[in-house]
Amino acid sequence: MASGAYKSIEEVAKKYQITVSIEPFIQPLPITVAESFQQELAYVLRHLDVKMSEASISEFLIAPILKEIWKHYDDYLLLWSHVALSVGEEFEGYPDYLFTKRTPLGLVRDKPYVVVVEAKDFEGGWGQCLAAMLAAQTINGDGQIILQGAVSNGEVWQFGKLQGRDFVRDPRPFTILDLATLFAALHAVFEFAKQQVQQS
């Protein structure tokens, strides 16, 4: 089934028997946000109507933020944009962004650790993200790898994690209006992914 066909977490949870809970799990790790990046983002917000389209949100808000935090982890993770993620007939889709383990093979996709989905509405976005996380889990062949996911409309970011058949969503919204806190949350997500890559 195409990932976009899922309209909610509940729909995915019922189909795949996933336990869903909501609790804070992100432990933000402070990180310095480059002044040049802050200035560039401020420029974009001041001079562009970034909400004019999904492509605009992705290009001017989500991708630059992900790229900025990924720079600290590019020795461990590779960034993929809008690449196919499929598992037989069960799942076929194109998560907006996927972070996989970097290996000696270079620019070759390996095990996924972080999935990011852009969404107009968070309910549908999380349905798509959870479905993509389940596909990534199948690809990994290891239900004990904790997959992390994020859904963003460009301004607000939410985070979730999947281990085995247990999915947890952090209820707190992190926003670009508080860039330091958003980057601290993303830093925590990527630091955890890095630790898992090192252990694998």
Description:
With 200 residues, the protein is an alpha+beta fold. It has five helices and nine strands, in the order αβααβββββαβββα. Helix 1 runs parallel beside helix 4 (122-140) and helix 3 (54-70) packs across helix 5. The longest helix is centred in the last third of the chain and has 21 residues, at 179-199. It starts with 8 loop residues before the first helix and ends with a helix. The mean pLDDT is 91.
Average predicted confidence as pLDDT: 91
Q: What kind of sheet is the major sheet? A: 7 strands, mixed
Structural class based on helices, strands and sheet pairing: alpha+beta
Coarse shape: globular
Strand content: 25-35%
Proportion in helices: 25-40%
* Helix and strand sequence: HEHHEEEEEHEEEH
Distance between the termini: 30 Å
Task: Write a compact overview of the structure shown.
The protein has helices at residues 9-16, 35-47, 54-70, 122-140, 179-199; strands at residues 19-22, 77-81, 85-87, 91-93, 97-101, 112-118, 147-152, 156-163, 166-175. The protein is α+β, with helices and mostly antiparallel strands and 200 residues long. The mean pLDDT is 91.
Question: Which labels suit this protein?
Answer:
200 residues; alpha+beta; seven-stranded mixed beta sheet; two-stranded antiparallel sheet; 5 helices; globular
Question: Topology, please?
Answer:
Elements: H1 9-16, E1 19-22, H2 35-47, H3 54-70, E2 77-81, E3 85-87, E4 91-93, E5 97-101, E6 112-118, H4 122-140, E7 147-152, E8 156-163, E9 166-175, H5 179-199
Helix pairs in contact: 1-4, 3-5
